[in-house]
Write a structure and sequence with these properties.
The protein is an all-alpha fold. It contains 17 helices and no strands. It is elongated, with a radius of gyration of 40 Å.
Length: about 350
């Protein structure tokens, strides 16, 4: 939702609140009998008061006063009913002030939630995290504590604010040089920054050392293995990279962040076998590196004929996309590979 739409919604809420509060004023109707009715009501109240306080010495006047009061009541009953009046001024302005407060509160609570409601879970969390960044940064700078620096760094990293994340993690490492999260994330920030700037990184540069040290300090942390595999693949160490990425998969069976990288690495390693290289480059990310299944079904248990396999590759099926680019020798080798697995 755009800012303009949010402001429009806020304006409509304010107008609706004002109209609701001022509705009694719009319904006000003139009362031609108001003066007479008021006088009769005053006289009625006076007579009732006089009857209540009538002394014993004047009891002889009671029948007269009661008769006058009865005639006044009949006269009042015979008059047309008074139209409904407007709200008293204090209540009216109080209601208007309350409506304004409710609209203001809604502007800072309901509308932001509605805006987040149009995002998926990951996007909404990113926006929320970004909104927290100024407060987290201020707290970290004021306290200087490692945990506050890490909280700021994590929020900035998750929100894609990598310059802030690098500053926070660097500050944390000054106090605790063996903090795995700060080491690996600062390392990957430096590594990708070098790539973006077109610089050639070496396996023993600062970024790689930070990531490798984090993996050594926290070998059972999935992210440590994932980032180590990413760094190793950047330097052409495919076998070590695959080992780290497979370790990541074993530590985090639900994680899919390494699938594409593993498929690409296996494709690079299997250039001598067109079937394996084609499978690794196009199929392994869904069907598993060995065809045993992953996001997609196991190809070893599929029981499909060669013609059916070829048709599925060319045209796709269900959620599987088509791969019309796989043709000729590569297609023949791929079909032979999968057919051999099924046998």
């Amino acid at each position: 939702m755009t800012a303009a739409l949010s402001l429009t919604l806020l304006g409509l809420m304010l107008v609706a609140a004002v109209l609701l509060v001022l509705a009694p004023l719009r319904g006000r109707v003139s009362d031609p009998d108001a003066l007479e009715r008021g006088q009769l009501e005053q006289e009625r109240d006076r007579l009732f008061g006089e009857l209540r306080s009538l002394p014993d010495a004047q009891e002889g006047r009671r029948p007269e006063l009661e008769g006058r009061a009865a005639r006044l009541l009949r006269q009042l009953d015979g008059m047309p009913p008074a139209p409904k009046g407007s709200l008293p001024a204090p209540l009216l302005w109080g209601g208007l002030a309350l409506a304004a407060v409710l609209v203001a509160v809604g502007a800072f609570t309901f509308i932001p939630r509605w805006q987040l409601g149009g995002l998926n879970g990951s996007e909404a969390q990113t926006v929320k995290t970004a909104l927290q960044l100024p407060g987290l940064a201020q707290r970290a700078r004021q306290s200087g504590r490692v945990r506050d620096e890490l909280a700021w760094g994590k929020a900035a990293f998750d929100a894609g604010q990598y310059d802030q994340a690098a500053s926070a993690y660097a500050a944390a490492l000054k106090q605790d040089p063996r903090q795995p999260e700060a080491l690996r994330r600062l390392g990957i920030i430096l590594l990708t920054r070098d790539d973006q700037n077109g610089q050639t990184a070496k396996p023993n540069d600062q970024a790689f050392l930070l990531i490798r040290t984090a993996a050594q300090l926290a070998p059972n942390d999935p992210e440590s293995q994932l980032l180590l595999g990413f760094a190793l693949s950047r330097y052409g160490q495919d076998t070590l990279a695959l080992t780290a990425l497979e370790r990541y998969r074993s530590l985090n069976p639900q994680g899919r962040d390494a699938d594409d990288m593993i498929a690409a690495l296996r494709a690079r390693q299997n250039t001598s076998d067109p079937g394996l290289s084609t499978f690794a480059a196009n199929c392994a990310s869904c069907h598993g590196a060995g065809g045993n299944g992953g996001i997609g079904p196991s190809l070893r248990m599929a029981g499909l004929t060669r013609d059916t396999l070829a048709a599925v590759v060319r045209n796709g099926k269900g959620t599987m996309p088509a791969f019309p680019q796989i043709t000729g020798r590569n297609l023949t080798a791929l079909l032979a590979l999968v057919e051999g697995w099924q046998k």
